[in-house]
Amino acid sequence: MWFAGEAIILGLVRIVAHVDMDAFYAAVEAQRNPALRDRPLVVGADPKEGHGRGVVTAASYAARRYGIRSALPISRAWRLAEAARRRGEPETIFVRDDHALYREVSARIMAILAAAGDAFEKTSVDEAYLELSSLGSFDAAVERARRLKAEIVSQEGLTASVGIGPNKLVAKIASDFEKPDGLTVVRAEEVQPFLDPLRIRVIPGIGPKTERFLHQRHIWTVADLRTLERAQLAEWFGRWGEDLFGKARGLSESAVSNERERKSVGEQETFEIDTLDATFVLERARGLARTVWSRLEGHGFRAFRTVTVTVRFENFITFARSRTGREAWTSEEALCAEALELLLPFLDDRENPRHRKLRLIGVRAEKLSR
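Predicted structure:
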C-alpha cells in the first residue's frame, strides 16, 4: 500500500484516481431496459401523480435538466417533470429502485477497479479510489484510467468519470469536473490554478449551511477561501476549520485504504400516509430492524453497542434518540427490542404531546464489532 510519505521517500510522485460512475442507478436501469436510454429518467418512490411519498434516489442527466436531483421529494420531481412536459419537453419516466440489482452491478465494477491499483478504496456503491503511484507518471495513470473506463463500458455498458490527482481530495474534485464520461487530470503543479476558480461547494464537507455562512462573508471561490487565515477558520469552525485551511490548498494525506471499519448500518422508511397507528408503526420498525440485522451479518458484524431511532413528524420536524449498552448486543431480537422501546414514546405524550402523525421512521445500529 502506498502512502504520501512513502512516495516521497521512494522518490515517486503520488498519483491517485477517483472513479465515479455516471448517474449510476439511472444508467443501470437504462442498461436493463434500452428503451429508457437518453430519456428523462427518475429512480425512486412512486410519484402517484404528485401525491407520492419518499424521495428521488437518482436522476438521469436528461431529467437533471428539468431541475430534478437526488433527495428531492418525489412529489416535487413529478411537478417539475409535468412542467417540462407541458413546455413540449420529452416525458419523464419514473421507475422504482432496485438496490439488489445495483449492488450486483457495483460488485462487478469494483472487482475490475480493485485489480487495477496499488491500493483500492470503495467509498460507495458507485465510487472508489485507486492508488496508482507505482506507475511512475501521470501519463501512465491516464492510460490506465482509459483502459479501465473502456473495460467497464465493454463489460457493463456503463460510463464512468475519472479524476486523477496527487491525492484523494484533488482526484475527487477532478472526477466531478467533466461529466459524464470525463477524464480530468490535475498534476501537482496544477492544483492551485485548478482549484482557485471553483466555487467553494466543491470542497468536501462544505454543505448548504457552511456555504451560506461563507457567502455572507463574501467568500465565493476556493481562491477567496485561501485568503482566510488558519486562525480565522478555526475560530469559525473549530478543528474542521484547520482542515479546511489545508483543503483550500489542495492538501490531503489521507491514504487509499479499504481497511476502515463501517461505523453504522441503518434503514429508514417514509410512510405512504402519515400515521399514529402504533400497531402499524411498530411492525414497520420490526421490519427495519430485521433488514439492519441482515445487513450487519452481510458485512461480517455480529454485535453492536448503540441503537438509534429517527422519527420525522408530519410537519417535517425530525428527532433522533439513541441508547448505548454497557455490553454489546448480539442478536436481531435485541436490536428490535431496543428500537421499539426508543420509538414508543413518540407514539404517546412522552415525546409527542401534540399527537402529531409520523411521516418517517429509521433504525440504526452503531459501534459495531465482529
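Summary: The CA atoms of residues 117 and 157 lie 22 Å apart.
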